[in-house]
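To: structure subgroup
Subject: Chain for Friday's discussion

All,

I'm putting the inputs and outputs inline so they're searchable in the archive.
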Amino acid sequence: SWTLPNAKNQIRNEISNWRSSGYSFAANLFEYFLDGGGPSAYLPSSSDINEVKIHGKEKICSEITKVIANKKGIVEVNIEPGGDDSNVRWWYLGSNKNMLYAYGGARLKAKGTPCVSGDGTWKETFEVELRDLYEFDKLGLENAKQFASEMFSKAYSAAVYLEQVGNCSSFPHEAKFDLECSGSVIPDFYND
């Protein structure tokens, strides 16, 4: 059973662990939550955005590649999330949990016009935007989220508690940046 002091200490310990593991952006978000920054939006620093570019690149470029798949020539990529749901999710990614801790899921928007060559290779710099609502207690999911949080992290369980008692509040945050992606897609020879 949580109290305000022990819940806040649990989160402070997690923030310290994340910083020592190099997850500064995730730690900054958790600290903003703990310090009562919400419901005002968190404005990421340039180092936060650099972390997203480094640690999120593989997943973001993978989502862009899905849109480009089986196209030739100049392809317009305009990923636009629908509704309020996340359209890109970071699950456990081996030892790199940076994006999992910072986002979990986010609304990805990407825009660019790569030129897919005849062999299916492409390279382009995209305008990327990731938007997220940093929250722990979602109406209607209290029990499920509490259970999942306790399995994942005691600090997440503490955050659910702090949000439920009104001591901390959810908040939006977004990162906008240019990101160079490259890849290859298998050309669809049957539809030429």
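Points worth raising on Friday:
The CA atoms of residues 150 and 157 lie 5 Å apart.
The first strand starts at residue 73 and ends at 74.

D.
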